[in-house]
Amino acid sequence: MATGAKSFTFLLISSLFLVSCFCAKGAQNPVPIVNGLSWTFYDYSCPKAESIIRKQLKKVFKNDIGQAAGLLRLHFHDCFVQGCDGSVLLDGSASGPSEQDAPPNLTLREKAFEIINDLRERVHKECGRVVSCADIVAIAARDSVYLSGGPDYDIPLGRRDGLNFATQNATLANLPPPTANASTILRSLATKKFDATDVVALSGGHTIGLSHCSSFTGRLYPTQDPTMDKAFANDLKGICPTINSTGTTVLDIRTPNKFDNKYYVDLMNRQGLFTSDQDLYSYNKTRDIVTSFAEDESLFFEKFVVAMIKMSQLSVLTGNQGEIRANCSVRNSDNSYLVSVVEEDLETKSELR
Ligand code: HEM
Q1: Which atom of ligand 1 is nearest to the CA of 177?
Q2: Its family (predicted)?
């Protein structure tokens, strides 16, 4: 073969190799994946799982884009307490009040739980009981980011659903309050191996969604937090006239429904809603990271994806651990009727194959 033809063949082969590398799921992922999770987990058992979820969420968000924020927060609250095992979805039982009953979870959206169970029903109808509720929550959070204008990215799958929910104390201990300052938040998240860049990036989840007055009125009454912009504080006082007001307001005043980097611009203008947000700009270890994300949205997206993939793998159950719930709100052993119906259905399906 002539040298020109040889080098052309070499170029062609190497570019094909590159293309296949970058097209493969997770190929560009900079985060190591946990044993038992995989980029191709449902490729044979439920290849349509992710497309069913995305298609349905597009419909849901067309009616109400606010639900995207509810689903993103649900994944965060699932993963931080006892790992991403769907335990936040479990209803309370004789063993005690559920994670849902713990104070930080009282403001999770009722509708988010309904959406997850609906997605579970659609996916199980297609494939049988093979996809876990914990994976559905993780996929729904990823899609919420993308469908609100944020980055699209692959997440490793194969999480199993937990058999128990965490205690109220464990829930409180693992979800820092909005009154915490940046150094407390950094210390708390360092126990889960998040560094300062991860913390600032994850807090960018507050670029969408709502908060109740009670989460921030401590910054308005009895004395106004001096780090808060005066006009912003006045607007908030209009929405929440007393410390016990029950109203709600947006987390990102610039673009409340769009997943972008404007949350960091808010912080630079002293318009962060919570102490835990605003202090990221006051604190010397995080201030420059906030500025860099405010100046460069693609840098924020890149670091957000890294931190989300890390978060989505916290203490996951895999392999034979846990179970695949037939109803996301109830563990299978408390739900024998539903499980046996689904199992019969699965048997019929495999007989038909
Ligand atoms: C770092 C510590 C964090 C604190 C202290 C915190 C605190 C809060 C609080 C108090 C609310 C409002 C609750 C209410 O009053 O209704 C909220 C909402 C929200 N949080 Fe966080 N959060 C943190 C991290 C995160 C992370 C890591 C994410 C996701 C990546 C996230 C996503 C959201 C979203 C999307 C909402 C709006 C929910 C809705 O509209 O229903 N938060 N957060």
Answers
A1: 5
A2: Belongs to the peroxidase family. Classical plant (class III) peroxidase subfamily. Belongs to the peroxidase family. Ascorbate peroxidase subfamily.
